[in-house]
Amino acid sequence: MKNISIELTVNGQAISSTVEPRTSLVDYLRDELRLTGTHVGCEHGICGACTVLLNGDPVRSCCMFAVQAHEQTITTVEGLAPERGQLSKIQDAFCEKHGLQCGFCTPGMLITCQALINKNPHPSEAEIRHAISGNLCRCTGYQQIVDAVVHATQEV
Amino acid sequence: MSNLPITPAQFTYIGKHRRAVEHRRFVVGKGNYAGDVLKPGTLHVAIVASPYASAKILAIDASAALVLPGVVSVVTGAEINAAVLPVLPGVDAPEVRRFPLADEVTRYSGEWVCVVVAKSRAIAEDAAELIQVTYEELPFVLDPEIAISDASHHVHEKAGTNLIFNRQFVWGPVDEDFAKCDHQLSYRVKWARSSTVPIETFALTCDWSDATGILDIWASVQMPKYPEQIANALKLSTNAVRVHYDVDVGGSYGVKRGLKHAILLGYLAKKLGKPVRFIEDRLENMRGGDMQGPDRLFEVSLGFQKDGEITCMKMRALEDIGAYAGRSPLQLGKPVGAISGPYRIKSVAYLAQAVLTNKTPQEAVRGFGQAPTNYALESGIDKVARFLGMDSIAIRKRNLINKDEFPYLIPSGTHYDSGDYATVLDKALREANLEELIKQRDTMRADGKLAGIGISSCLEPSGGNSSFEPLFNPKNETTTWMESCVVKIDLGGQVTALMATSTSGQAHETMVSTVVGEILLQEPDSIRVLHADSLNALPSNSPVGSRMAIMLGGAAAGAAKKLRAKLITIAAAQLQVSDQDLIFTGSQVHVANHPEKNISWSELVAIAHRKFHLLPKDMEPGLQEKFVWEVPTGGELPDDQGRVQMYPCHSFESHVVLVSIDPDTGKASIHRYVCGHDCGVMISPDVVHGMTYGGIAHGIGAALMEKFSYSPEGQFLSGTFMDYLLPSSSEVPAITIVDHCTPSPLTEFGQKGSGEAGYLGSPAAIANAINDALATINASIDYLPMTPNAIWNAIQEKN
Amino acid sequence: MKAAPFDYHLAQDLVHAKDLLHEYGHDVKIIAGGQSLVPMMAMRLAKPSHIVDIARLQELQTIKQVDDVISIGAAVKQCSLENNPFASKVPLLEIVLPWIGHHQTRHRGTVGGSLAHADPSAELPLLAFVLQATLHSDSLVSGQRQYTAKDFFLGPMWTTLEAQECLTHTDWPIWSGPGIGYAFEETSIRQGDFAMASAVTQLQIDHDEKVTRLCFGVGGMGGTPYSFEDLSSTVIGKHLSIDVINDLCEQAIHSTDPASDLHAGAPYRRNLAKILLSRTLQQSLSMAKAAIHPSLR
Fold first, then answer.
1. B211-252, pLDDT tens digit by residue?
2. Would you say residue B171 lies in a domain?
3. Are residues B664 and B784 in the same domain?
4. Distance between CA C219 and CA C199 in Å, rounded?
5. In whole angstroms, what is the distance from residue B178 CA to residue B191 CA?
6. Would you call C196 an interface residue with chain B, using a CB distance cutoff of 8 Å?
7. pLDDT confidence band for B327 (50 / 70 / 90)
8. Domain shared by B442 and B571, yes or no
9. For residue B681, which phi and psi values (nearest 5 degrees)?
10. What is the pLDDT of residues B161-171, one digit of tens each?
């Protein structure tokens, strides 16, 4: 099995790596780049804990091999904050509205919510619920997550 | 126990909106989960599992696996089981022994047979595929009603039976009371095997050091006495195991017990002299992770008068615990502490039966058996109402314990501490706007849908206790269920608290800093809360049984109060007054009515830490206090009728749900969801609300779509998230919570526990709503989950 | 759940892809979006020694109109069908889109991938059957080929494609003229799950509301989706009364062979499919009538 060289941008940084083809993107991010913010929940494309932005779109990084990310741009939860010590609007809103508990689904959820508000700056509750329906959470019952997105998008 | 109601004082920090401390690291992806821990040189583990319900292991050929590059070791049951001690059940069934790997015989589809250790998880999986296990299939039993008979195949031959717990409790003159009733009705309901299925699977690293003689464990765990049980099994002394409780646990809700995982990996770590890590993949987690929950058949009889008063109950609970027994049979025991629900039922007979079958073992699930019991009881309350032509609200109002009757003693020996059930129900109904709800329901009915309103009114016993252990195993005379906290004020005047167990989303750091801040009148965000490890921790019994607000909150408050008293005593000596003359404001201590006679916090800290010459005589220098305490109302063994105070504090919830059913597809939709909730004083309201929303979502899953299924051949069918369905934001509706507060007289601030809220009453309310809808066509459904197909079947089978 | 080892080949263009597929044809799988393939590989249900990545083939990325069909490249992402001026000429494509997985999967999953995966409960295979799409492939060994849906889909997860054949594009007929109506219905336990059953109708009526064209079918009711062409021909020139609709659905479902699984038993599926089919027929008819008589809208 031949290893493959890949070049990609992760959270604004240009990265070069050599990977086994079978390494999933989420495992590459976590094990190789030690960006452990993105989590593994199911490895078969249902739970959404592994969601990252691929060229600005939310995708399941457990359903991609790292080699497929060659020449692509990835944003993980570690890349959401504008500066060190600061939080993005959505991260801040999650804290304010208690939109998380154990935090395990949260990175994927934040990515999905960020992608939503990038496309739709003032989503309705129905649109929010539809947008996050591919991210499973077992702690929150989703209510305070929806409240957080509403809060993030209604602030002046 | 005080009979006086306590009104909540004006708190400075308690009960206020506050951002959770933990969230700061979670939202930037800097949580410290077990799967993030990667020690240098870590080896990785994959499991080979049996595909059969019941089989003898004839041979294991690992030769091809062992020569694969990167493979370090293959270990079988023959090797490890000779080196470790088995884990025994919580009930008296010493022949039901449990080892990490199957010993000669496998007893469920998914049981661990052997383990591969390799340089990467991927290589370990490659190697696992190369291992050839030769099995001889054996008879098996899947149906608990068959397993219960002596003629059935015995899951554990040496046990001689599958019925490893079988006790008839009789509390009060039940037969006499039934004879005196105008009516009685009997019914069966079935709670399906489901669980809370956290998004994070069980993960751990074990690392043994010859140099220190310590086995370090980083695990995603929620388990009382975890280090001790691992030490015992591995024949290590109990101070040779160090569990790191500062690991963030990605959700547990009861299930992450991880004993066999840690015994296995502890053995491997010691054998190989390297850190060993195992992160369950989802398949391993669903079938062999031992986190499946109650699988319970109820047969209930209720005796009642024609005016709706329900006076007596007989309940049989037959629990299918799977192929091994950990704490699972005890899940029949905890509901004893609220067996009559919030009602004035006078006498109860309870037959609790735990039976082994060839399925994945059951573990403790949120509520520890209370949610199924509430479902069974609440279903019956509605059936009584329908029988009498009363509505579901009126029947409850007729039977709810009145607010003037607390503390209220139930037939099984527990006192409920405080409550006002009718008010909570009323608040929920008002919030739901019952009149509007009825109109909505009737409009949907006119439109050709089936529609119904469901109510549930349920207890949430909280605080934890060991009482169900001696109740279910009289040989286990234990009554201690303690919790601890250490609080210190350092040289710089900053406060740090040390808690003794793990957290899985309940925001304990936030709760403890709020409590300590309240007592010491310091800004909670300035207070740091750390998790000890099991060697430097004081005793704890883990966040189980909705106990942490009560017990850890109480311990933190206790330690903080000692510190405050000490500061006052130091001040008294300096100001030459007595302690009683002083007012503590946090930033200073001053003489009452003489604020100019004061001494500041930092001066007091300096005296304690640096000015021994100014310290009162015989006073310990520094500012550090511990508080270890027993659960309030605990400390007594059950009497020989099986009566005992189960848990100390009793929260209460009342759900009001409007559902509709498409009669052609059987699909149910929830249109309105209101939950009235009373857990006494809420230390962190955001946290309490969050967990209640989450509990309701768990309940929706259990009610409508979640089930661990087995084929007739005992094959496990629910291994993936395409088979086992978890509700998404499209399946969980908007939920409104309405709070009420009846403080507990037993706790520092009047707080009760609330970790299981929502889940305990949700399946009952949804089932009642669906049955209210089905009743219009004389149909009913008495089992979960109420999937579209199940509801459609019920519609076809209508009387 | 880590995939078994394999060698990865990134195709630069279609010629390169065909060469690679030919070279490794004994044990190769094509990957585009990977939303079906990668989970299967993680579960080790698929263990190809070679993967050929066609996701970047420019030739397979276009959506365009060619005469009276919309031609969609096989590697077009599902999300690209949304708000696309060409795809909107086959309106059912956009209608089923929210039902296909979740938006995360639609950002990677491709039209060709869903068709080649051939899940009998999936939306795009059902549309391909009912709308009579033509599926085009190419390979070094056999050159360009085209298939009807009936020839293409052989059974669950099983198509007529050979290992080295690559789907290149699919052609979807455009309906024109007045009086067109269409509808899609699906029932699953959760939003985004595979359907327990699904149904789709597209029809056209004349000014007297008699049927001039009808195609309808169901998914999740057998090894492949069903399209009831023979039954359709029996109602050409007739009014679609409720009795006719009921009769059509009765006969249609009678010819299906639904399985029982964890989520739905066969009797339930039959009833469900009948209900959904009837609903799509009725909804399509209402829509077509409104198109004919705008004042009645």
1. 999 999 999 999 999 999 999 999 999 999 999 999 999 999
2. no
3. yes
4. 6
5. 26
6. yes
7. confident
8. no
9. -75, 130
10. 999 999 999 99
| A155 pLDDT higher than 80 | no
Q: Which chains touch B (3 or more CB pairs under 8 A)?
A: A, C
Q: Which two tokens stand for residue C259?
A: 């399985």
Is A41 at the interface with chain B, CB within 8 A? Answer: yes
Give C192's pLDDT tier (boundaries 50, 70, 90).
Answer: confident
Query: Is residue B150 included in any domain, yes or no?
Result: no
Residue B798 has a pLDDT of 84
Residue B680 forms part of a structural domain? yes
Provide CB contacts within 8 A for B618, sequence distance 6+: none
Q: Which residues of B touch A110 (CB under 8 A)?
A: 27
What is the ipTM score, two decimals?
0.98
Q: What's the number of domains chain A is made of? A: 2
Asked if the structure places residue A139 within a domain, the reply is yes
B395 and B516 both lie in a single domain: no
Band the pLDDT of B190: cuts 50, 70, 90: very high
Q: B230 with B254, same domain?
A: yes
φ/ψ of A108, rounded to 5, equals: -65, -40
pLDDT single digits (tens) A15-71: 999 999 999 999 999 999 999 999 999 999 999 999 999 999 999 999 999 999 999
Whether C206 and C238 have beta carbons less than 8 Å apart is answered as no
User: Are residues C43 and B283, on separate chains, in Cβ contact within 8 Å?
Assistant: yes
- Phi-psi sector, B251: left (phi>0), alpha (psi -120 to 50), beta: left
Q: Do A19 and A40 sit in the same domain of this protein?
A: yes
Instruction: Please give the full DSSP string across C19-76, using - where no structure is assigned.
Output: HHHHHTTTSEEEESS-TTHHHHHHTTS---SEEEE-TT-GGG--EEEETTEEEEETT-
The pLDDT assigned to B126 comes to 98
B446 lies in some domain: yes
Closest Cα in chain C to B279: C1
Among the candidates B629, B653, B672, a domain finishes at B629
**Same domain as A14, residue A64:** yes
Nearest to C105 among A1, A27, A45 (CB): A45
Q: Are residues A25 and A61 in the same domain?
A: yes
Q: Is C272 on the interface with B (CB under 8 A)?
A: yes
Closest by alpha carbon to A129, among A148, A102, A107? Answer: A148
Q: Which of A156, A155, A146, A37 is nearest to A94 (CA)?
A: A146
CB count within 10 Å of CB C144 equals 9
Bridge-based pairing of strands B55-61 and B105-106 is antiparallel
Amino acid at B57: I
Q: Is there a single domain that holds both residue B416 and residue B388?
A: yes
The answer on B452 and B323 residing in a single domain is yes
Q: Are residues B330 and B426 in the same domain?
A: yes
**Sign for the pseudo-dihedral over CA of B85, B90, B91, B96:** negative
Q: Which domain holds residue A131?
A: 89-154
pLDDT in the model for residue C293: 87
User: In which order are the strands placed within the sheet that holds A57-60?
Assistant: A13-19, A4-10, A73-75, A51-54, A57-60
Q: What's the pLDDT at B799?
A: 62
pLDDT digits (tens, 9 = 90+) for C249-285: 999 999 999 999 999 999 999 999 999 999 999 999 9
Supply B455's token pair.
Answer: 């109510």
B617: containing domain: 8-31+482-629
The answer to whether the Cβ–Cβ distance between A58 and C103 falls below 8 Å is yes
Query: Residue A97 belongs to a domain with what CATH number?
Result: 1.10.150.120
CA distance B23 to A141: 17
Helices vs. strands in chain A: H and E counts, helices first: 5, 5
- The DSSP code sequence of B571-616 is HHHHHTS-GGGEEE-SSEEEETTEEEEEEEHHHHHHHHHH-GGGSP
Residue A84 lies in a domain: no
The CA–CA distances, whole Å, from B573 to A61, A75, B249, B559, B608 equal: 64, 60, 46, 22, 12
Domains contained in chain B, number: 3
Whether residue A96 is found in the same domain as residue A74: no
